[in-house]
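An instance as discussed:

___
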Amino acid sequence: MSTPVRTDKWAGNFDCGNCRRKRLMANEFSKKALERHRKDGKPLKCKVCVQSAEEAERKAAAARQSLPTDKATLNEVRKCNLCQIEKGYSDYNRNQWNKGEGKSKCRVCVEKALAEESSQQATAKEQKLQEARAKVAAANKSGDKPTILKVESELAALEAELVTGLKPVRMSGEEAAEVALAMLVKDVVDDNLIGSNQR
C-alpha cells in the first residue's frame, strides 16, 4: 500500500541553542527540554551538548572535589556496590559516598550505567520501529485493509514521535466527537468570516 519511509533523511523543526545545529528532530532533545520549550519558549539544548556539559561538570567537580574535614574519611576505603572493587574517597562522588557502605557506586560504574541506559533507550526505540515496519510488511502481504490501516497508523505514530517528540493521544468516542465538532464549528466560522470579507 505504501513504501517505507526513510527517517534518516528527515529534518526536524528544532534548533540547538548551544551548538547552533539547525533543523534537528525531537529525538535529539530530552523530553523535559521539549516540554519546557513548548511551555515557556526557552532555548533548546541537544542531548550531545547536555552530555558534554555534564562530562565537563563531572571533571571539574572531580578536580575541585571538596575534601572532607575528617581525616579518617580521607583514608577510608569502601567496596563499590557494582564492580566490588575497594576504592578510596576520591573515586566516589559525594552523593554516592554519602549512601554508605554496600550502597555506593564508584564514578566509573555510575558513568558506565548512564551510558548503558542511554544506549538501551535508543535500541528500544529502533527496535519498536523495526517491529512496526515488519507488521506493515506482513499486513501488506495479507491484503486485509483494516489491518493495514491499523499497523500503518501505528508506524506513522512512532515515526511522528521520533520527529516531534510528542506521543499520540488516543481519545475516547466522546472526546473525539467533541474535538471533531469544535473543528467543524471553527471551519464554519472561518468560512463565514472569509465569505463576509470578500463581499
Remarks:
- Residues 95 and 104 are 8 Å apart (CA to CA).
